[in-house]
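Morning - 2-deoxy-2-amino glucitol-6-phosphate inputs below, output right after.
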Amino acid sequence: MCGIVGYIGAQQAAPVLVEGLTRLEHRGYDSAGLAVLGGSGLKVAKRAGRVRDLAETLPKRFGGKIGIGHTRWATHGPANDTNAHPHSDTAGRVAVVHNGIIDNAAALRAELAEAGVVLVSDTDTEVLAHLVARSTEATLEQRTAEALARVEGTYGVAVAHADFPDRLVVARNGSPLIIGVGDKEMHVASDLAALVRYTTTVAHLDDGEMATVTASGFTTYRIDPSGLSATDRRAKEVDIDPTAYDAGEHDSFMHKEMREQPARAEAVLRGRLDERFGTGHLGGLNLDARELRAIRRVKILGCGSAYYVGEMGASLIEELARVPADAEPASEFRYRNPIIEPDTLYVAVSQSGETIDTLLAVQEVRRKGGRVIGLVNVVGSAIAREVDGGIYLHAGPEVAVASTKALTNMYLAFAMLAIQLGRVRDLSIADGKRLIAALTALPDQIEQVLATEEDLALVAKRLAEAESLFFVGRVRGFPVAREGAQKFKEISYRHAEAYQTSELKHGPLALISSQVPTVAIVPDDELVERNVAALEQIAARGGPLVVVTHAGVDLGDAGASAARIDVPRSARELDPILLTIPLQVLAYHAALSLGHDIDKPRNLAKSVTVE
Ligand code: AGP
């Protein structure tokens, strides 16, 4: 969603800011803007549309070595030039960019209007610019703190002020803010992606923290009701490959990230498999064997694909550990006043670690005294910091909106958790070893599936012709179907609906026709015969079929017309992930054949940081 960048140093700020904003495009946005501070004061340029449109239309005289920039995802007011950030006060001496939502914006707008201030935009952010401008405190830090003290809600914010031309002030409350230390220059961003081209030495602000950033360094403070107290935040080197944010030889990040899955899968498993005892070795859980044994229930919370992989995880935990487990959309959880039980383990799943619905669900659990662990990809993200322990996913930066490699690693993390929970209960050492061996084989098997991309592309092109599709599966296969439908609709914009195969005959079969294909998940498991019977019902009604299955499965009469995708067999319990991989490739090639922007699907954002 919204993105922030800032620069202060010896270079002209505008090109650096444009570059930073370009690196944040994947987050999703509808308008962009810059403010630079130079000899002739503060200048602002902003407009609806793409960053490149903004860059092409920047005024000729747009010099300044201090600046802030923003990509906006509309929340208060439509996407237009006026509502784009930065926002300024009436005299044009203050510029503010803001991520998050000011909940009491209406009251603050009314108060400012009452005082004679003319507000020009529909946004919540504009009030901040006016509040900073109206403050009579001595320093920019105090003025910003005074303004923020009036605000209820969340923010990552950067402020430039013509009266303080040697600094930017930034602050964070619920929305990430990172400071990057360059060579005689400093950077600011809401996401590492905008910084890594310039520096990998960074400091993450905490909630309630503010910083002064000058060309030579930064100073941090805690915003207390009584004023600002210094904090001792230091910049640290982050272990990140700067090319992680380049698509390289690939036409899109999604393609690159799908292809990275074998290596990333190895990374999440590395050092966490105990072959001798046939168990997982997940130190970050902060739970010893006795505590693991005391768990009576597991509740998994995530959104979108993280929720669907949570369903796969719940089924793994029930099967391997025989502990009741279920997954629930984190976005719904706190609104039903959930009962938090002391012997339930809550598991928050999030690639970004920023998804506000998941973060608020975690806070609801903790507020009621529950224990929550995180399966999170982004190290040091809000959710990672909020939980009692967890498993980092080691998927590397994921840029494409459609999650692929992070989702695979979520599944593998669940598998290790389920095995470890099982091994302190009744999962035998023999079964534990069998599963560990199967996990170890998965990276190569994922590679085998990806190697069939050309064949999958042909199937995908045919699927892309349909306006509407079904994805069906049963038990272990149902969350696979849900995730397949999610990926397909997300980037191909086709209506893709997931159903339990067993439920087709209770209603949706009425929709099956030659125009409505079905992608069926049919692993070689205890349900294979029932699944094949359902395929025959679809085929008999002229419904085109794509069947994701295992070699040797006899598809009966449906086999004659079905497009068949065979994936390698894993341990039966672990089959879902190999069944999921071809569905990613199908979605990708369907979107490609339809000419869509794969990495930036319409209306969607990589990190959903507003409710
Ligand atoms: C996945 O392809 C989607 N873009 C989306 O459903 C995503 O999984 C969801 O928004 C949760 O994001 P998170 O993992 O960063 O919390």
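Note: The two ends are 12 Å apart (CA to CA).

O.
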